């Protein structure tokens, strides 16, 4: 069972949501296309993941050459052991 909400409460909620939407639009930038921003972010994440994967392969090879574990290489190079 849902509690009834008065028209005044609904209007206050709508106004609060509109203010939040306006604030977020200002933060995003007037006239900025959110879809373009998201697409660019996805491209950057994809590039980051490719670079990270290549780096981990190199660290793995280095560990093999030095007869160490990947964790030991991370510690030796002062790299984080987790993401």
Q: Could you explain how this protein is built, in words?
A:
With 83 residues, this protein is an all-alpha fold. The protein folds into two domains: 1-32, no CATH class; 33-83, no CATH class. It has helices spanning 7-28, 34-66, 70-76.
Poorly predicted residue ranges: none
End-to-end distance = 44 Å
H-E order: HHH
Shape category: elongated
Report helical residue fraction. Answer: over 70%
Report the β-strand fraction as a percent range: under 5%
- Residue-averaged pLDDT: 90
Radius of gyration: 24 Å
Largest sheet: none
Q: How many structural domains are formed by the residues?
A: 2
Number of DSSP strand runs: 0
Q: What is the number of helical segments per DSSP (H or I, 4+ residues)? A: 3
Class based on secondary structure composition and strand pairing: mainly alpha
């Amino acid at each position: 069972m849902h509690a009834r909400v008065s028209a005044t409460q609904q209007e206050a909620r709508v106004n609060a949501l509109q203010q939040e939407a306006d604030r977020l639009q200002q933060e995003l930038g007037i006239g900025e296309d959110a879809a373009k921003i998201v697409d660019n972010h996805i491209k950057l994440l994809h590039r980051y993941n490719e670079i990270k994967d290549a780096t981990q392969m190199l660290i793995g090879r280095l560990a093999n050459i030095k007869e160490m574990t990947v964790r030991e290489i991370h510690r030796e190079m002062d790299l984080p052991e987790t993401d």
